[in-house]
UniProtKB/TrEMBL annotation, chain A:
It comes from Perca flavescens. InterPro entries: BBS1 (IPR028784), BBS1_N (IPR032728), GAE_BBS1 (IPR056419), Quinoprotein_ADH-like_sf (IPR011047), WD40/YVTN_repeat-like_dom_sf (IPR015943). Gene3D superfamilies: YVTN repeat-like/Quinoprotein amine dehydrogenase. GO terms for molecular function: patched binding; smoothened binding. This is BBSome complex member BBS1. Residues 421-523 form the Bardet-Biedl syndrome 1 protein GAE domain. It is found in: Cell projection, Cilium membrane; Cytoplasm, Cytoskeleton, Microtubule organizing center, Centrosome, Centriolar satellite. Keywords: Acetylation, Cell membrane, Cell projection, Cilium, Cilium biogenesis/degradation, Cytoplasm, Cytoskeleton, Membrane, Olfaction, Protein transport, Sensory transduction, Transport, Vision.
UniProtKB/TrEMBL annotation, chain B:
Keywords: Cell membrane, Cell projection, Cilium biogenesis/degradation, Cytoplasm, Cytoskeleton, GTP-binding, Lipoprotein, Magnesium, Membrane, Metal-binding, Myristate, Nucleotide-binding. Mg(2+) binds at residues 30, 49. One of its GO terms (biological process) is cell projection organization. This is ADP-ribosylation factor-like protein 6. GO terms for cellular component: axoneme; ciliary membrane. Belongs to the small GTPase superfamily. Arf family. The lineage of its organism: Eukaryota, Metazoa, Chordata, Craniata, Vertebrata. It comes from Perca flavescens (American yellow perch). The keyword Ribonucleoprotein does not apply.
Length: 528, 185
């Protein structure tokens, strides 16, 4: 256990500590020139103050009230009126029923084996018994000016649920406040002589706000999970919780926002750059990252080689924006903020995209539109019914036509399984003589089709055909067979008609497929 | 050097050169410039420069006008306004400040990448200052930390100096003078 002081990149001094430290604070304790700050180290019930790298002063918190019965018992033991076994029994009974707890010495005595009791009693019975509390957290509070080098008071939180404010010069207790639970962390703002706020996170998972001239907390913030870090940003409190969240509250306890973190919080600190008017919160996370949040927006992430256990941002040597971090394995890292660094808000909160708020140039509503909308609103059900009925009718008509086409093989596609055929027709020429080409294809996978014929049906007063009936050769699957014939238009009145083409199977009267050819108007003149 | 220049030299009319003196705060810029001035014009107390100050001194053939810029963080954005006028740069480094060597490198990189400097073949003289301090880095180490070997398109030179005693300054100024002369001819 050592107190180490670094300067630049080198260790400057080391002093051994007597007990495990629970907190550390640097402060100015007097106005003497040159201004030398002091370092206060809290351990056990004492605050050790170091100045000029040497121990300077030790302050011990006042002892707590001792149980009168316990005191009597030890008095009797000292005078030899009771033996250790009786003392133990009596102490046990006090421990169980009385509300003032036993001293550390009595508790230690109770934990001993019978043979060791006598030695312990002989060793300790001459000293009076005392009950001491333990410091859990420490902070500083400016005395009367807000200057950077103003004199500061020490603020101490103890296991006995008290918060003390100490005078920096005489180390008198200026103020004593009581909390409902032992404090674990605190953040102090303001000046002792003017007005101040002590925000304390307690072991019962609540945060209390203490004010001047009140020895009880004024406001209480109840958290859903235990606080791990506590920082004040402006008038709000930002808390890192053990459920991997970062929450912000007003000092009256109203919740402002909550951000979900990628890993559990290990430590928190505020990042304050008054020259730029920048305030943010630094969070050390268990996944070896340090994240910087302004409000609930993540601004920056620093990857670290190890889990960061404590963070401090401020002036180090001549650099104002320095971030000092310690890691779990005992490393010390220093990062300096670039002069040209900019912090841009990346709003990570899922919400409507920016484009959504751009106003569209919607034209004004016309009277027709309004009337139509009104009509639709009033007769909505009827209109829907009429539409659905028409749609059903349309579907029925389509289905009927399809069935009819299938039944009479009117389509140019044959659906029969034994002779699947496809046909299209092409008419070439200007007239009066046209060339008619039928492309017939067998669409079966491997089976050829035989014994097919083509027959034409037409108005004989209009057209004359060279061969109105033709046989089709064997159709090999996949190949397209062109079947050609010539049609002559006998009319010169500029009319046209439909020629129907049937593909037939020999020995069957119903066609396999049918095609209707819309003949073009004959534009040429017959040479008679 | 033409005949006229030599004549001007005899007559005491020396060529004027504008030099920028840059570097972090507390690196010793003002102390160095103070040492280069004639002994009767030297100031006794050196205080942190605010904004900048203009100093003049002469060498055997040139008359230097030095813009001694303040190195404090809040004044460093003034530097770039003087890049255009500067015909040479003196960059001072506190060799004993290992922690802020990264800051010096950052400022040097910003300087070298500035549009007024980037495409000019402007000589840069580095003073690795405060060699008298016990834990000071050597000039070789300083040039490694600042990655000076990456400066390919500009003549540069690094000198280990102790501005309080004035050691090493003359060597650097001589180099600078030679560079400016070769640049002109």
């Amino acid at each position: 256990m050592k107190l180490k002081v670094y300067r630049g990149t080198a260790l400057m001094s080391e002093s051994a500590l007597l007990d495990l430290p629970s907190g550390l604070a640097a402060f100015f304790m007097d106005l003497h020139e040159p201004r030398v700050p002091a370092v206060a180290v809290a351990s056990g019930p004492c605050v050790y103050v170091y100045k000029n790298l040497r121990p300077y002063f030790k302050f011990t918190l006042p002892g707590l009230e001792v149980n009168a019965l316990e005191q009597d018992l030890w008095q009797q033991a000292r005078e030899g009126q009771i033996d250790p076994v009786t003392l133990k029994e009596m102490l046990e009974s006090i421990r169980k029923k009385v509300d003032v707890p036993l001293s550390v010495r009595s508790l230690h005595f109770l934990s001993l084996e019978t043979e060791d009791m006598d030695d312990f009693l002989q060793l300790h019975k001459q000293q009076p018994i005392r009950r001491q509390t333990v410091i859990t957290c420490i902070g500083t509070l400016k005395k009367s000016t807000a200057d950077d080098d103003g004199v500061s008071c020490l603020v101490i939180g103890t296991e006995s649920c008290h918060v003390y404010v100490l005078d920096p010069e005489a180390f008198l207790i200026l103020s004593k406040m009581t909390l409902p639970a032992p404090p674990t962390m605190m953040d102090v703002t303001g000046q002792f002589d003017v007005e101040y706020r002590i925000t304390v996170a307690c072991r019962n998972g609540n945060i209390y706000v203490l004010r001047r001239e009140s020895d009880k907390p004024k406001y209480c913030i109840e958290l859903s999970s235990h606080p791990v870090g506590l920082v004040r940003v402006g008038k709000n409190v930002v808390v890192g919780c053990s459920d991997e969240s970062l929450q912000s509250f007003t000092q009256k306890g109203k919740k402002l926002w909550k951000a979900v973190l990628p890993a559990p919080v290990t430590t928190m600190a505020s990042m304050d750059l008054p020259a730029r008017g920048f305030q943010a919160v630094l969070l050390g996370l268990a996944n070896c990252e340090v994240q910087l949040y302004r409000d609930k927006n993540l601004l920056s992430t620093i990857k670290t080689p190890d889990v960061v256990t404590s963070i401090c941002f401020g002036r180090y040597g001549r650099e104002d924006g320095t971030l000092v971090m310690t890691t779990r394995k005992g490393g010390l890292m220093v990062k300096i903020l670039k002069r040209t660094a900019t912090f841009e808000d990346r709003d990570s909160a899922p919400g409507p995209p920016l484009a959504q708020s751009v106003r569209l140039n919607v034209p004004k509503k016309t009277k027709l539109y309004v009337d139509q909308t009104l009509r639709e609103r009033e007769n909505g059900a009827a209109m829907h019914g009429a539409f659905q009925m028409d749609l059903s009718r349309l579907r029925l008509a389509a289905a009927k036509a399809y069935v009819k086409a299938l039944e009479s093989s009117l389509a140019p596609m044959s659906a029969s399984l034994t002779e699947p055929l496809k046909m299209n027709a092409v008419v070439q020429g200007l007239g009066p003589s046209f060339k008619l080409t039928l492309n017939v294809q067998n669409t079966a996978a491997c089976r050829p089709v035989m014994n097919l014929a083509v027959s034409f049906l037409y108005d004989e007063s209009l057209y004359r055909m060279r061969s109105p009936y033709m046989r089709i050769p064997l159709l090999v699957p996949g190949l397209i067979y062109p079947v050609e014939t010539f049609v002559e238009c006998t009319s010169d009145k500029g009319v046209s008609d439909i020629i129907k083409v049937f593909v037939l199977h020999e020995g069957k009267s119903s066609p396999l497929l049918t095609a209707h050819i819309n003949m073009p108007v004959s534009e040429g003149l017959t040479l008679n | 050097m033409g005949l006229f220049d030599r004549l001007a030299g005899w007559l005491g009319l020396k060529k004027e050169v504008n030099v920028l003196c840059l570097g972090l705060d507390n690196s010793g810029k003002t102390t160095i410039i103070n040492q280069l001035k004639p002994s009767n014009a030297q100031a006794q107390d050196i205080v942190p420069t605010i904004g900048f100050s203009i100093e003049k001194f002469k060498t055997s053939s040139l008359s230097f006008t030095v813009f001694d810029m303040s190195g404090q963080g809040r004044y460093r954005n003034l530097w770039e306004h003087y890049y255009k006028e500067g015909q040479a740069i003196i960059f001072v480094i506190d060799s004993a400040d290992k922690l802020r060597m990264v800051v010096a490198k950052e400022e040097l990189d910003t300087l070298l990448n500035h549009s007024d400097i980037k495409h000019r073949r402007i000589p840069i003289l580095f003073f690795a200052n405060k060699m008298d301090v016990r834990d000071a880095l050597s000039s070789v180490k300083v040039s490694q930390l600042l990655c000076l070997e990456n400066i390919k398109d500009k003549p540069w030179h690094i000198c280990a100096t102790d501005a309080l005693k004035g050691e090493g300054l003359q060597e650097g100024v001589d180099w600078l003078q030679d560079q400016i002369k070769t640049m002109r001819t």
